[in-house]
Design a protein that fits this description.
Pfam families: Alpha-E, CP_ATPgrasp_2. The chain is of the alpha+beta class. It contains 26 helices and 19 strands. Helix 17 runs antiparallel to helix 18, helix 20 packs antiparallel against helix 26 and helix 24 packs antiparallel against helix 25.
Length: 828
């Protein structure tokens, strides 16, 4: 194959991970390069495509606000790993573990005796002036005496080959889950290479995290319940929150899932309140408790800080850890290390100087172009600026700001980044990289993950490492002897017959509510899509039965699906019903609601189920892209119907029959019943009951056309159509079938929970079953008599629709809102 290094042109001023100063391939990279050279470019492209497919199949995303690709942007992973030799890694790991231990001691002092301030090793302005110093946490002793359970540090390699710390991540450090997912994907892309190089496994890191949370949780003899607290699905690393919760075996919860009673933290589950003993939080400090920290937070738990204060829950990391991320702190750590640890820092930070000291300010002002000037606090609206990028006047303005308020600024030397090979465009290219390394507190000190998350700059000529700005990631391979036998760590506790569980004991009420509405929106989208397909098909085909088309349009308008004539021509109204962003019943709006609820219950959906939802989103994008051609819209709508039908199949065959599934199916059942009742009742009132074309579209709307033709092999006629859609107890699209299904589901629910009386449904079912269709063929009644039968049937269907709406409200009050019925209801 062509020379892989032909297009590889690293920056001569930067350290290159692949080539040494003489342009020779470094020893630890030779086996990888030899493997690549044995492959054809097409084979490498196939491997990269496999990586991309695996990311899509696993649903790995990194949410980016206001991103044109949508909030769920696919994670980007380069085919080639970053390589670190074992001896070099030992130095890095020792430095990271030392730094984590030091920062833990710093926190203990700052929220305790504050001796560092008294000794002049830290300026009070830098601590007390920072918004992340939480005064309510002063004097608090964390459970287990550990402040920093999980730590991450961003490292960059200078031109001389030494590693420097560019940032400490202590508040709710992200990336460990992404590192694990990267490992699982890339190790499958190069299985032989992964094995032959002896890449160190990540299992021990996550096992230590589990052990620490379990051992330090104040369980008092109970089995500890550990939860992962997330800010929700719009957080940029929500996938990682969900992924870690799954891998660690912990419930993923939001603040609204938790409540404080008598200084004890509880999880609100379908079965009642369950005490929480430990929280692995992925929520910033000040958002955690609106009572004592940030009053405008809707993400936290009121009273949580008091539970922590009384030692009733383990908080990992301890509240207040965000202070350590203050950029001005780094420059004081070398002296603090000598004081607290009695040894120098093994990993140096980039040169950093707090401008609050007069001598430091003078030094910075004398060589302003050399420094990157940053604000000490996020509360200060000051964007980091490189002195060298400013003209003379701008430098003078910046110097004036520094003199006016020097304690508010910190000067840092620009970080130097090394370069590593990236597989891009069918060749190797040199891109800037940095590595985020993770450490977890254990019983014998901090354990460092052998590897980490390598981030790659998006363009070759930039040193910005940001996943928010479109960066790419790499798996990080530490080469050498493996310390553990395998990658798996789950299930280390021996399980016996007494440990068997048949349902999720920690199913949050919020998740159940979203499953209920996921079921409703799934069915609603399917029903509306079918109705729109029927209308659009007859409109495009220029149906020769205008009376039937008019009746169908009136029905769609009565159902709220089709906008009224004040919205313009029929063409415009159909487009609005399909794609209208402002029309509340449009298919587009309902699909967005479906995606919203799906994102909230992603942890309960299988990988295949989630892929069906991703495909559904693509269908909707194709639908929006074909809005200029009604025929193309109809074709895409047919594909969308298949994706919606797949959701039904996954619900029936791919989910465990637990309480969450039961509520999902109840939601589908209620929605289908209401749609059938509204549709058939509206049809009976249109006056087109003797029109075969109208009966045809009613059968199609009830998804029963094939069943009718198979049974009768005749054109659509009133009595058998009504029998099939109203009274056939074997047709899942018949009213009586769904009515009985709903009653059975509610009775099973009542076996475990107290429910309101549902006898009204049984009474209505008996009335419906007693309907005698023979009356429609008796000449004694005449037209007026038949009209009276239709009106009676329509009123009965209205009553069934209202009764199912009451069931929806009762379920919402009983299981989701947890309030008395007199306090309000949710719209059904």
């Amino acid at each position: 194959m062509p020379d892989l290094l032909a297009g590889y042109s690293p920056d001569a001023a930067a350290y290159d991970e692949l080539l040494d100063s003489h342009g020779q391939v470094r020893a630890h990279w030779r086996p990888v390069l030899n493997q690549l050279r044995r492959s054809q470019p097409a084979q490498l492209q196939q491997r990269q495509a496999m990586v991309t497919r695996q990311i899509q199949a696993n649903g790995v995303t990194y949410n980016v606000y206001a991103d044109p690709e949508g909030t769920d942007r696919p994670w980007e992973l380069d085919l080639l790993p970053a390589l670190i030799p074992a001896d070099e890694w030992q130095t890095i790991a020792a430095g990271v573990a030392q730094r984590a231990a030091l920062l833990d001691k710093v926190l203990a002092d700052l929220y305790g005796p504050q001796q560092l301030l008294a000794d002049g090793l830290l300026p009070p302005e830098l601590v007390f002036g920072h918004e992340s110093f939480l005064w309510p946490c002063q004097g608090m002793q964390p459970t287990g005496s550990t402040y920093l359970h999980l730590y991450a540090v961003d490292l960059a390699r200078s031109a001389d080959g030494s590693w420097r710390v560019t940032a400490d991540r202590t508040q709710a450090p992200s990336g460990a889950g992404f590192a694990l997912e990267n490992r699982q994907i890339i190790s499958r892309a190069f299985p032989e290479l992964y094995r032959d190089l002896g890449v160190q496994h990540l299992a021990a890191f996550f096992r230590t995290l589990q052990d620490t949370l379990t051992s330090q949780a104040p369980a008092a003899g109970e089995t500890p319940l550990v939860v992962v607290l997330t800010a929700g699905r719009f957080n940029e690393s929500y996938f990682e929150h969900l992924y870690l919760a799954r891998q660690l075996g912990y419930p993923l919860v939001e603040g609204s899932d938790l409540t404080v009673r008598d200084a004890t933290l509880y999880l609100k589950t379908l079965a009642g309140l369950q005490r929480v003993h430990a929280v692995l939080r992925r929520l910033d400090d000040d958002f955690c408790d609106p009572l004592e920290l940030r009053s405008d937070s809707t993400l936290g738990v009121p009273g949580l800080l008091e539970v922590v204060r009384q030692g009733r829950v383990l908080m990992a990391n301890a509240l207040g850890c965000g202070l350590l991320e203050a950029p001005g702190l780094s420059g004081f750590l070398p002296a603090i290390s000598e004081k607290l640890l009695g040894e120098p820092l093994l990993l140096k930070g980039i040169d950093s100087a707090w401008c609050g000291e007069p001598s430091v300010l003078d030094e910075v002002l004398q060589d302003l172009p050399h420094w990157l000037i940053r604000g000490c606090s996020q509360a200060q609206p000051f964007a980091a600026v490189q002195g060298a990028s400013l003209d003379h006047q701008q430098q003078a303005d910046l110097a004036r700001c520094l003199r006016q308020q020097p304690e508010a600024y910190v000067a840092q030397a620009p970080a130097q980044l090394s370069q590593a090979p990236v597989w891009l465009g069918g060749e190797l290219q040199a891109q800037s990289i940095g590595i985020r390394v993770f450490a977890v507190a254990g019983s014998d000190g901090y354990r460092v993950m052998p590897g980490g998350l390598t981030r790659v700059a998006r363009q070759a000529d930039t040193d910005v490492l940001s996943m928010q700005r479109g960066g790419v990631s790499k798996d990080t391979w530490v080469l050498g002897e493996r310390q553990v036998p395998g990658e798996q760590w789950q299930g280390t506790r021996a399980l016996g017959a007494a440990d068997l569980v048949r349902s999720d004991p920690y199913l949050p009420s919020r998740v159940v509510e979203n499953l209920f509405w996921f079921g409703r929106y799934s069915e609603r989208c399917e029903d509306n899509a079918r109705l729109l397909r029927i209308m659009l098909g007859r409109y495009v085909d220029d149906d020769d039965d205008p009376q039937a088309l008019d009746a169908m349009l009136k029905l769609a308008h009565g159902l709220g699906t089709l906008p009224g004539e004040n919205h313009g021509s029929l063409d415009a109204r159909l487009r609005e019903a399909l794609l209208g962003a402002e029309w509340p019943a449009s298919l587009r709006v309902n699909l967005q609601r479906l995606q919203w609820t799906a994102g909230s219950v992603r942890g309960k959906l299988s990988q295949a189920n989630w892929q069906a939802l991703v495909e559904l989103q693509r269908d909707m994008q194709r639908l929006e892209g074909g809005e200029d051609d009604l025929g193309q819209l109809l074709d895409v709508l047919n594909g969308l119907m298949i994706s919606l039908a797949a959701l039904s199949g996954f619900a029936l065959d791919d989910m465990t029959r637990d309480d969450g599934w039961r509520f999902l199916m109840i939601g589908r059942c209620i929605e289908r019943l209401q749609f059938l009742c509204d549709s058939i009742g509206g049809f009976l009132r249109t006056g087109t009951s003797d029109d075969a074309s109208a009966l045809d579209w009613l059968l199609e709307l009830g998804n029963s056309s094939i069943t009718y033709r198979t049974r009768y092999m005749a054109s659509a006629q009133l009595i058998p159509v009504l029998d099939l859609l109203l009274l056939d107890e074997r047709n899942p699209h018949a009213v009586v079938y769904q009515l009985r299904l709903l009653q059975r589901a509610l009775k099973r629910l009542a076996e475990h929970f107290e429910l309101a009386d549902i006898s009204a449904l049984a009474k209505l079912e008996r009335q419906l079953s007693a309907v005698d269709l023979h009356s429609l063929e008796s000449p004694l009644f005449g037209a007026s008599g038949i009209r009276a039968v239709f009106d009676g049937l329509a009123e009965l269907l209205d009553a069934i629709r209202q009764a199912t709406g009451m069931v929806s409200e009762q379920l919402s009050l009983r299981f989701f809102a947890h309030v008395a019925a007199s306090q309000g209801t949710r719209s059904s």
